[in-house]
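User: Here's a chain of 171 residues. Predict its fold as tokens.
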Amino acid sequence: MNTAPIPPSADEPRWLTAEEQRVWRSYIEAATLLEDHLDRQLQRDAGMPHVYYGLLVKLAESPRRRLRMTELARYAKITRSRLSHAIARLEKSGWVRRENCPSDKRGQFAVLTEEGYAVLGQTAPGHVEAVRQAVFDRLTPEQQKSLGEIMRIVAEGLQPREAGADLPWLR
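Assistant: Prediction complete.
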């Protein structure tokens, strides 16, 4: 009697093993809880969701605190429509303003205002402490390095390389 496992057929899904399922579910639970934790901290401390904070950070790190809207959408991995809504909310708060692109009549820049920069400066210490407590204080330096390497590999594998890829920031 042959007891060797039968390989799956070409049309059979490659089901996760019990250990892969455990890892996957742990990742999903941690990612969901972490995003919720950071969102609640930023809503409480600055009245903004985590994605808005990320937009302000990217603008603060950009030359002249400005970035084309398409580049900002690419960075945030969100649709242009969602970005436009977020920028409108940030404009209403006085933290960002839009400027037309002189070289491209359809293009626009998002620009971090002085008020937005000040809010970011006030918010950053609490946010970095929330990140530190939720992630880095729980891991050894070796685990931190491994987590960074793993997330880089996953992210690189998910970045489409072909032209015309279905990317959120192109929609």
